[in-house]
Amino acid sequence: MISRRNFLTAVAAGTVSAAALAACGAPAGQTGSAENPVTITYTWWGNDDRAERTRKAIALFEKKNPDVKVNGNFTDFAGYWQKRATEAAGGGLPDVMQWDLSYLRDYAQRNQLLDLGTVKINTDAFDKTLLPSGQIRGKTYGIPTSTNAFAVYYDPAKLKEIGVAEPAGTWTYAEYKDWLTKIGQAGGGKYFGASDFTGIWWQFNIWLRQKGIDAFTGDGKLGFSKDDLRTWLNLNSDLRGTNAVVPADRSAQVKPKSPFGSNLTVSENTWDNFMAGYLKDSGAKELKLVPVPSDDPDNLGLFLKPSMLMVASAKTRNKDAAARFIDFMVNDPEVGNIFKTSRGVPASKTQRDGTTFEGTDKAVVDYETSIGKYLRDAPEPPIVGFGTLEAAFLRFNEDLNYGKLTVDGAVDQWFKEAEDVIKQNA
Amino acid sequence: MTQTLTRHRGTAAAPPARAPRRRGADTRAGYTFLLPWLLGFILLTVGPMLSSLYLSFTNYNLFEAPKWIGLDNYTSLFQDERFLQSVGVTLGYVVFGTPLKLAAALAVALLLNNATRGQGFYRSAFYAPSLIGASVSIAIVWKAMFGDQGPVDQGLSFFGINLGGWVGNPSMTMPMMILLTVWQFGAPMVIFLAGLKQIPQELYEAASVDGAGRFRKFVNITFPMLSPVVFFNLLLETIHAFQIFASAYIISNGEGGPAGSTLFYTLYLYLRGFSDFRMGYASAMAWLLVIVVGVITLIFFRTSKSWVHYSGDSK
């Protein structure tokens, strides 16, 4: 039988294992070796499709640069940032990384990224209005690989199936909502209109731009008021709970896929470079893009955003090799042809010209061309902690759709969170 | 008390008593063998724990040097609605999940104890879930089982209960998580089984002679004799329940949703530390958990005196 003594030992062991949780926070890192040929590490987020394309690009790079070996490694988007945070804490960020605008300031302002002005990367073929989006306080930390623009996606086959007309070019919010309502009615619970568009941060950001408001001020504060956010969330109040909006419990179950990629909805508002991913997820033959709604026909609030950037670690031991790899990834025409529009439309002209766009890739390029006259300057890189705020924006909207929060409650809670984040990072 | 020694292979039993006196050489050899574990414990557990204790008093974003802010992390915890929500979710899970799991474990152990044939097979079969239960793949299977049109949804619909998928329904995710832990009752069951084997048969024989029924035997013999094992299991399972992470992370896609219904304490801690880059805050949460688990353990020990009977005790 168990004696009191060894019983105590066992319990102590159990308690210690609980305490071991407290021990998170000091992970180890790794760096490439400086032998000949030098090895650099490269990491990116994405699905299998991107992994395949990236491997091809790396093989091509190694062929053209026999003195450099690239060690590639990838994860999904959410896990990506958790991993980078751990590596940064341990001082072991990979040499070269695919990067997102949302996290540029977080890492650049904290001296984690290499000032790319100190190395040789050719940016002659880039649109001069695009490069500043990779710059923080006058220094270049990221080179855009490609651009994307916000759009409303829809599946023409599903619209035909349920007998709802395709949208015709530009539209107002009233027209857009009317269209969603029709889909909801005709879809009869099999298809819903879309996800609650008021939960999408960038859609909100674009709506603010349509009203001439900047989401963030130059000194890292919020540029809009609680009333703005309240008006925004109320814009869709009448559709929540109807079939125009996919029910929260349905979309929660298909995660990490989107309701649109899971064939629950007929449309979705997001960046145009998601095309390849959506096609693969949903199995649809064709998806179409139209501009986001606006009540001001001359100002759609649209802009070209770097869909992703290439950055290097401030601590890389192989600056030269890292710079060559970045230069290759953003400029080489053959790389453009490998990725097509799966990273977005190639940002450098040499790469764009070297790429043949067909089918759905052409649809993305055509969309960006068609909205050319509406494009305005891109906003500055988002504030430090933006990733947290964007996640909270979506979360409170989910709670709203579950009926766990009111619009006023969601507004108050998001602002509280935002003020907290801004204070933390001041 | 006399004991019939029918000790089982591989089950929990008292180690052989320590031999009277060892010379210094033996002690050194002992420590040498212990060294790998000891070093690991100091470097990988104690060291990081102490540094996290320090970090819990700082504002630390993983990139810059930690800034000392005193007790701010601890005080702001209690104004954080998500934190309070995570406490509620975790307590609900511990309070309902643990007793249910132990009850299931004890019930099955009692049944198996009486089995004459195939006991080894059943024991392995029931134990298997707790071996694989914590794995990522099982969480994924669970998510599929309880999703829209999953086996559970279809099974219930057959009986006219239309709940839809549990995964997306904030009021059904907790029962789902509790079922997942109850299903892994194998580990405490094996320990119960070992404890049951140790209860002297003559006690039951004597009780039978006195005309005691099955229920009386359970209340007056089995449970008191088993109480140290029950206590042991209760304590370990409670501590485990507080630490639930992997399954919640997988099922909620790392977000603690829907509507925060699977925002377990450790998951929120993880999100705070690694998504929001607030490692000081996360460290404070970790230490609060250590303290709370410690206090609960202490309370268990204090109250145990009234219901746990050790064989060596005179009372």
Automatic annotation (TrEMBL), chain A:
SUPFAM superfamilies: Periplasmic binding protein-like II. Keywords: Signal. Residues 1-22 form the signal peptide. InterPro entries: Bact_solute-bd_prot1 (IPR050490), SBP (IPR006059), TAT_signal (IPR006311), TAT_signal_bac_arc (IPR019546). PROSITE patterns: PROKAR_LIPOPROTEIN, TAT. It comes from the Bacteria. This is ABC transporter substrate-binding protein.
From TrEMBL, chain B:
It is found in: Cell membrane. It holds the Pfam family BPD_transp_1. Residues 1-24 are annotated as: Disordered. SUPFAM superfamilies: MalF N-terminal region-like (SSF160964), MetI-like (SSF161098). The chain crosses the membrane at residues 31-57, 91-112, 124-142, 176-196, 279-301. Keywords: Cell membrane, Membrane, Transmembrane, Transmembrane helix, Transport. It is a multi-pass membrane protein. The keyword Calcium does not apply. Its main location: membrane. GO terms for biological process: transmembrane transport. The keyword Transport applies. Residues 87-300 form the ABC transmembrane type-1 domain. GO terms for cellular component: plasma membrane. Residues 1-10 have a biased composition (Basic residues). PANTHER family: ABC TRANSPORTER PERMEASE PROTEIN (PTHR30193), ABC TRANSPORTER PERMEASE PROTEIN YESP-RELATED (PTHR30193:SF1). Belongs to the binding-protein-dependent transport system permease family. This is ABC transporter permease protein. It comes from Arthrobacter globiformis (strain ATCC 8010 / DSM 20124 / JCM 1332 / NBRC 12137 / NCIMB 8907 / NRRL B-2979 / 168).
